[in-house]
Amino acid sequence: MAAYRVPHPRKPQIERHSRRQTLAARVVGFVLLWSLVGLMTLVADRALPREHLPWKTLTMIDPVGASTRIKAARAGDDPAACRAILAQGGIEFSEVPPTAGECGVRDAIQFKSGLAPLSPAAPPMTCKEALAFGLWERQVVQPAAFDELGQAVVAMDHYGSYACRRQYGKAEGPISEHATANAIDVAAFRLADGTVISVARDWADPGPKGRFLRRVRDGGCRIFLTTLGPDYNAEHRDHFHLDMGGWPKCG
Ligand SMILES: [Zn+2]
């Protein structure tokens, strides 16, 4: 004979009541959480300098802050805004006509004035690479030169920005950021008195030259998406590779 169980008449009602309470608690929690986020955002907006706030527009006069790198990378998604930031910072440049293909260059510029000149002159750079480079020169290189060496950097030597090649010049593997002019290799810094600070020669210097180079590398890591120097590997023993592509990397 089959067992007979008397159904509990109150159970469905209790379960419905419990579900309503759970839903109400979740809604209240959600509202409280977003109210807290909104309040913290408002406080941060008033209390923190703009270089730490990702929703504030990037400018060339802001010191390097917690949000500088993300803002510089984002500016590259809007070439018109990127060029406007450079122009507002007093940097003159010309636009490079776009090219197509795997090594096509788009939204690139060449500096004309407003920064320490590069040698060879006016390498093409994507706007976001140029923007990061301009910030680095203004907010990292020049202050470090004055602090450590007591004078300005008046020129920088480089090994190139644009080259249609794969990483490390290999026959196979990922395309280099240089293939789209989204990188530059800086090798030396020329000071006002004629002194040349070379990455290859002075990286290990324990004095002001070495301190200057390490500050320049560390500052690069807070602006460029990728900053690689002699500490990273032997391929970078004589230059800083500075690019605005891929995942953040510092070495
Ligand atoms: Zn490079």
Write the layout of secondary structure elements.
Blueprint: H1 11-47, H2 68-75, H3 79-88, E1 92-96, E2 108-113, E3 118-119, E4 125-126, H4 127-149, E5 153-160, E6 183-191, E7 196-198, H5 199-202, H6 208-221, E8 226-228, E9 240-243, E10 249-250
Parallel strand pairs: 3-5, 8-10
Antiparallel strand pairs: 1-2, 2-4, 5-6, 6-7, 6-9, 8-9
Helix pairs in contact: 2-4, 3-4, 4-6
Bound molecules: zinc ion.
Describe the structure.
The structure is a single chain. With 251 residues, the protein is of the alpha+beta class. The chain has one domain (62-250). 38% of the residues lie in helices and 18% in strands. It contains six helices and ten strands. The strands form two sheets. Strands 3, 5, 6, 7, 8, 9 and 10 form a seven-stranded mixed sheet that branches. Helix 2 (68-75) packs antiparallel against helix 4 (127-149), helix 3 packs parallel to helix 4 and helix 4 runs antiparallel to helix 6. The termini are far apart. The mean pLDDT is 91. It binds zinc ion (ZN). The site of zinc ion has 4 residues, from strand 6. The site of zinc ion (ZN) has 4 residues, from strand 6.
